[in-house]
Amino acid sequence: MGRCIRGYSSEGSEGNTSWHHVHAFTTLDGQYVEFEEDAVLLEQGDTVTVRYRPNNPARSATVMGRGGTWSPR
After folding, report:
1. What distances in angstroms separate CA 6 from CA 11, 15, 28, 41, 55, one per listed residue?
2. Residue 47 forms beta bridges with which residues?
3. Residue 46 phi/psi, 5° resolution?
4. CA–CA dist 35, 12 (Å, integer)
5. 3-class secondary structure, 58
6. Which is deepest, 31, 36, 51, 68, by most CB within 10 Å?
7. What's the rounded Cα separation, in Å, for the pair 3 and 27?
8. Closest CA to 7 of 33, 37, 31
9. Mean pLDDT across the chain, nearest whole number?
10. 39 Cβ neighbours under 8 A, 6+ residues apart
11. What's the CA gap between 53 and 2, in Å, rounded?
12. Residue 4, CA distances (Å) to 13, 15, 16, 51, 55 in order
């Protein structure tokens, strides 16, 4: 499990607003990881299910379920 630790918005060149979220979790072996993923319907403090590849959690982490999809990089 992880948590949405921060959310912020940015404005595009055409005036559209994009929402961004930073999530954090600790791997089974104790590594603390933060990653950014654009997810909808999340607020700071929300608990999220995180999926990742154990050999590279920082590059493969993604939010599962509400607001996210499984799409490792």
Report:
1. 17, 22, 23, 13, 25
2. 3
3. -65, 140
4. 21
5. helix
6. 68
7. 13
8. 37
9. 85
10. 4, 21, 48, 63, 67, 68
11. 15
12. 27, 26, 23, 14, 23
pLDDT of res. 71: 42
- Beta strand 47-51 with 62-64 is antiparallel
CB atoms within 10 A of CB 46: 18
Give yes or no for a contact between 13 and 54, defined as CB atoms under 8 angstroms apart: no
At residue 16, φ and ψ (nearest 5 deg) are -80, 145
CA–CA separation, 54 vs 40, rounded Å? 25
Token pair listed for 13: 């060149």
Q: Which amino acid is at 38?
A: D
Token pair of 3, please? Answer: 């948590």
Cβ distance 19 to 26 under 8 Å? no
Question: Per the confidence metrics, is the pTM higher than 0.85?
Answer: no
pLDDT value at 36 more than 60: yes
